[in-house]
Amino acid sequence: MIIPPEELDFQPIRAQGSGGQNVNKVSTAIHLRFDIRASSLPESWKEKLLSYADQRISTDGVVVIKAQTHNSQEKNRADALERLQQLIADATKVQKKRKATRPTFSSRLKRLDSKKKHSDIKSGRKKVDY
User: Fold this and answer.
1) Is 107 within a domain?
2) Residue 81: per-residue pLDDT
3) Which of 12, 39, 62, 104 could form a disulfide with 27 if both were Cys (CB 3.0 to 4.6 A apart)?
4) For residue 20, pLDDT beyond 80
5) Where are the beta strands (DSSP E) in 1-130?
6) Nearest Cα to Cα of residue 14 among 73, 77, 89
7) Which residues pair with 31 in a beta bridge?
8) What pLDDT, in 10s, does the model give residues 45-98?
9) Compositionally biased, Basic and acidic residues: which spans (predicted)?
């Protein structure tokens, strides 16, 4: 999947955390903004992305990804783009239908045995009458 560059908004910002004397002068971190509603993605993908539960997607449908792990702006830009593509891939992945199955005979016996043992343990805690 290729996202046109004009739909992406890269904003260089200063990275958080420790650094040397250079940290206050150079903006190496990147904020990537991607508007889902205004994008050229298929409508079904847009709906899935907008309903996807992810803190990087705002209520007005803008994906904001902050990349600051690398020391160069180019690497952070590539990292942010890769994370956006991964987010879109995860949100639009088709879930496999679940086939309803019945528990096996041995699993039923194990469950009942476990319940019986638990019952015995609990009944052993009762008050003793003489």
Assistant:
1) no
2) 93
3) 12
4) no
5) 8-13, 29-35, 62-67
6) 73
7) 11, 66
8) 889 888 888 888 888 889 999 998 888 889 999 999 999 999 999 888 888 999
9) 120-130
